[in-house]
Amino acid sequence: MSLPLDQARALAERIRAALSPMCSRIDIAGSIRRARPVCGDIDIVCQTQPHMRAHIIALCKRSGTLTKQGGQYVMVALRHGVQLDLWFAHNGGGDLFAPEPPNYGILLLSRTGSAAHNIQLATRAKSLGLHFHPHKGVMKGDRIVASAEEADIFRALNLPYIEPEKREVQP
Fold this sequence. Notes:
With 171 residues, the chain is of the alpha+beta class. The chain folds into 2 domains: 3-88, Beta Polymerase, domain 2, CATH 3.30.460; 104-166, Beta Polymerase, domain 3 (2-Layer Sandwich). 35% of the residues lie in helices and 31% in strands. The protein has helices at 5-19, 30-33, 53-63, 104-112, 115-127, 150-156, and strands at 3-4, 23-28, 38-39, 41-48, 64-69, 73-78, 83-88, 93-95, 98-100, 131-133, 137-140, 143-146. It has a 5-stranded mixed sheet with strand order 2-4-7-6-5, with helices on both faces. The chain has a 3-stranded antiparallel sheet with strand order 10-11-12. A hairpin with a 2-residue loop joins strand 8 (93-95) and strand 9 (98-100). Helix 4 (104-112) crosses helix 6. The two termini are 30 Å apart.
């Protein structure tokens, strides 16, 4: 089901407000963030407070039907007939010899899109000898060189920051 931007944004803001106390960071992404006139779903990226992911998933299950779940996301068919795609960023960490940086920026960037914009970023990365991984970040071999913030990713690709509303066009 598609919604006009104002209705989609209002619903997304209510969801963000409900989840916000359980998150250290939370943003609306997708077509709402790009201010598209019609939105097909609601994308939200969050970084949960410690031990809150299970509570968020339980809340999602009470609010609709969980249609898909992976290590970094849940997809929920809401009672409104709208699809909620909720993406969980990690704080970074890993072991001493293979630390992994936070991935909030890459999730927010890739989940905001557009798909064509993401393809252009991936093409740009490849031209620089890098790889654009939509869940990990910009990579050189196995090493993540940018992932924590969107601005870091654009910098790693030698591009100026592109506002979400302008991501329908070529970077």
